[in-house]
Amino acid sequence: MRLSLLLPILLIATPAAAQDHASAEDSAAVLKTIDAMFAALTAKDEAGILAVTDPAGKATGTTGTDAGEHRISHIDWAGFAKRLAAIQGVPVERNIDPHVHVDGDIAMVWTPYVFTLDGKFSHCGTNHFDLVRKDGAWKILNVTWTQRKTGCPGQ
Q1: What's the predicted TM-score (pTM) here?
Q2: Which candidate, 17, 77, 142, 150, has a CA 20 to 30 Å from the CA of 127?
Q3: Domains of the chain and any CATH numbers
Q4: 92-122: pLDDT as tens digits
Q5: Nearest of 109, 45, 118 to residue 83 by alpha carbon
Q6: How far apart are CA 27 and CA 129, in angstroms?
Q7: CA 31, CA 106: separation in Å to the nearest integer?
Q8: Separation in Å, CA 18 to CA 10, 12, 21, 123
Q9: Do the beta carbons of residue 92 and residue 116 sit within 8 Å?
Q10: 67-101: string of b/e by CB count within 10 Å (b at 16+)?
């Protein structure tokens, strides 16, 4: 009787436990794709952004205000890439302690980040990336992030 009660729990828990860790090779490849996106962001390189993203995906940002309001914005990758030229200054985004999870051809990265413009602090938050492996290459399907100016690493 106890085994029949325990077996469903083990079957549910086992897949999640198996997904907790990515191989070093997969983790490096996933992070290399994200680093390429950040390099394209810094260079304001529209083609570079489009090269590492899946056109079916999007970028979603959430921001809060001092008044407690929260805004959510969505944009497809083509629109996101076109906006790069309008950024005033040199944007640099840096992930801090990314956690990578991979299962087959899907990956997820959760990480705090810091964003600077011309070397000066702009904001921080948390990034959540969803990636898919297509034809052997990792592509960023979606990124969702929070954005704030307080409680940031290094402040």
Answers
A1: 0.83
A2: 17
A3: 23-147 (3.10.450.50)
A4: 999 999 999 999 999 999 999 999 999 999 9
A5: 45
A6: 13
A7: 13
A8: 12, 11, 7, 35
A9: yes
A10: eeeeeeeeeebeebbeebeeeeeebbbebeebebb
Report the residue count for the chain.
155
Comparing CA positions, the residue from 41, 37, 66, 64 lying closest to residue 51 is: 37
pLDDT in tens, 11-45: 444 344 444 567 999 999 999 999 999 999 999 99
**150 Cβ neighbours under 8 A, 6+ residues apart:** none
Cα–Cα distance for residue pair 47/117, rounded to 1 Å: 21
Grouping H, G, I as helix, E, B as strand and the rest as coil, residue 21 is coil
- What contacts 27, CB < 8 A, 6 or more positions away? 100, 102
53-64 vs 70-76, strand pairing mode: antiparallel
